[in-house]
Amino acid sequence: NAAVNSADVLMLNFVGQSAISACSLATQYGSILFMVYFGIGTGVTMLSAQYWGKGDLNAIEKVEGIALRFSVAVGVLFFLASTIIPELMMKVFTNDPELILLGAQYLRVSAASLLFWSISEIYLSVLRSIGRVTISTVIDAVALGANVILNAVFIFGFLGMPKMGIIGVA
User: CB 3.0 to 4.6 Å from 67: which of 44, 61, 77, 161, for a disulfide?
Assistant: First the structure.
């Protein structure tokens, strides 16, 4: 997560200071979500690891289901807020109209990813707890690589794509 955010900021450096600032403010909600998902994921990991040691796969499935409900509920709330009231969300952090406009654009475009993240984080936590760490590591590495490549394509307009700036990061 930190590497993805660092890549975003590094590439946005070429777009402009306002884009960096707006993206940094908008991703504060991602930081909040990260803490929520990390908390849920840690609980799932601890319980699943205990049940894995006992060989109780049914209990792991139940724990995973409960965690998914909580995680997806939080993801849906942030998704709805990001699509319906992104300007209001940005006003929590700034009253600069340019940053609100840019940050709201970022939130609107990236909103759907919050739903996918709410699901994948729980599944990856369960996989790690049952000793399938390689899958999680590969997925994280591929996601980082794809983020860097797609950022370059969409921010700077490579491969015939239009230059999208902060929308390209989202």
Answer: 44
